[in-house]
Amino acid sequence: MKLLRTILILIAALVVGMPVAMAQQALITTQEAALPDAAGTIATRGISRGPGVKLASPEPDAAVKAPFNFKVGFEGRGGAKVDPASVKVIYLKSPLVDLTPRLKSAISASGINFTRASVPPGTHKIKVTVMDQEGRETNTVFTLIVE
Length: 147
Prior knowledge:
By secondary structure, the chain is α+β, with helices and mostly antiparallel strands. About 15% of the residues lie in helices and about 35% in strands.
């Protein structure tokens, strides 16, 4: 009986510790998507010495089916490295929805690599803020169109 219990505990630990390669991960829930859009406009500067931020997947402003890989690339400028701890990802709804905790394990100095993102159909605006180690900040808004 003790052996069976030990085996079950080990199996449970392995299952919990294994990466969820095939499971979808909620980037945005249906309840969050139903919230009203955030009011006002988001000010971003056209010229910045802050890090470069580019949506790598899905294609910018192209319709995509969920689940999809959500990938954002970061590029430091002038030799400055991106500070992964500074990254904030906000879903522009009212109230604003902080997606950063969901993406924490997918964030690195080179970008965000969140696989099999589950997002309900619709148009979703996401603001990504990133800072380099010299304190220079970049804010970028991406629009995800999900069929």
